[in-house]
Queue: 2 jobs
Job 1
Amino acid sequence: MIDVVMLPEMLDAKILPESQVVVLDVLRATSSVVTALAHGAKKVRLFGTVEEVSAAAVTAPPPVITAGERGCLKVSGFDLGNSPAEFRTDRIGGATVLLSTTNGTRAAIASRESQKLFLASLLNASVTAQALMGEIDKLHTIFVAAGTNGRIAHEDIIGAGAILWRLLGDSYRVDLPFTDTAWLAYNAYSATRGRLGAALRLGQGGINLIENGFEEDIDFCAAIDSKAVIVEVEKTTLAAKIYNQAT
Ligand code: MLT
């Protein structure tokens, strides 16, 4: 089965051990993680709460960068917010990033019982599709859309669709077992792929960013295939790392 779970709350935990899971929070958490690793962060550790980040910052071996948002805004006292463009090599190269966001990091934590756990965004859609192909006939492939505060997010469904589009197109397989929600995501991407920046502005996640002064982040996150890094999460430590540098 190749499925899109529209919100983490809709996830069927029973099938996680037989699944490769891809968590998407296109605006902006998984785009930030992909960017941080592409720009030389050693790893990005994912946390559910601000307090957990602050505690880990005391004990983690340096160099360490604290990052994250609440209500789109940088958490007070943290080094960085959740704008992917902030994760520049000169800020985070060689460092461990400790990240907590409202929806994205929690969606990854909700998926941690999966056999393999990837983080993806539009930025690394093609390389993520390539990584999934290896086990596509052995495991379920489940896309978990992080959503925005418990509501389905347009941009996450488009992001899942971008990877599904590549799975189908690159594999020349007409027999891939897409569920109905997978087809919905595929069709959402199919309808918007020539104008992703405009499409990302339409959903509530995009509107929230514009209202808070982060419109530039939308264009950054819409840059399809601009970062050739596959991101896998080590499930025991919840550390996101580069899985395989695509050539
Ligand atoms: C989240 O994880 O909730 C989002 O990434 C929010 C944001 O855009 O900062």
Job 2
Amino acid sequence: MAATPAWPPRSTPRLFVDRPLAPGPLALDGPPAHYLLQVMRAKPGDPVRLFDDRTGEWLATVAETAKRALTLDVGAQLAPREAVPDLWLCAAPLKKGRSDWLAEKACELGVGRLVPVVTRRTVVDQPNTDRLRAHLIEAAEQCGRTALPQLAAPVKLTALLRDWAVAGNGSDRALFFADEQGGAPAFETMRARPGPAAVLIGPEGGFDDAERAAIRALPQAVGVSLGPRILRADTAAAAAVSMWMAAVGDWR
Ligand code: SAH
């Protein structure tokens, strides 16, 4: 059936598929098949919405099911791939549950790129990027994004700052540095600087003095305050991203 305002129904499963989509048959196995067959109890004829982070979103219909695999018939395109706001979230990896939360919220709130930044007080040795990616995908499926946030390889703060100055690597990108020790009010400051941006959030223990000085020495860095209370890093990230979206992003 073709896409209409009433079709597909709101309850239609929505899945990310990591290969280019086009009209025609599509075989699925592994976790996506498990989700459709075991969790959603998909039957032949059921609609499924698919997006691939490349071509946009498509309406498909379950054609055939087996025990652990199924074939879909990809039909009409529902939407082109969206334009993603040009905001990076540069954030120190947090303990498991909080990093999961942060990835989910970053995706829902519209972040274009998530950059795990390792700082002196980062407590997590090696951020689990597979796990972060899985949370980004799940959030994108749920919130209706047709483009995934990019997930950058973890980078040390010193390298991040060094690269920032190099042409072609974010040189005109503002770095809004959330500083719990004080800065300009975030909303007004962001509103005055539209264009490519990033927000930088420290780990649970904050940045140390040397790091704070190195960040402030970067010409593109702008220290911003998120109010008089000390926020947890995950709260600070969600607050700063929301503020940017409202000030100059796609919430306007
Ligand atoms: N150093 C603090 C905790 C850091 S909070 C302490 O233990 O006392 C973690 C991160 O959240 C900070 O590095 C900062 O980037 C951000 N943050 C928290 N509260 C903030 C605020 N009121 N304004 C700006 N950034 C804040």
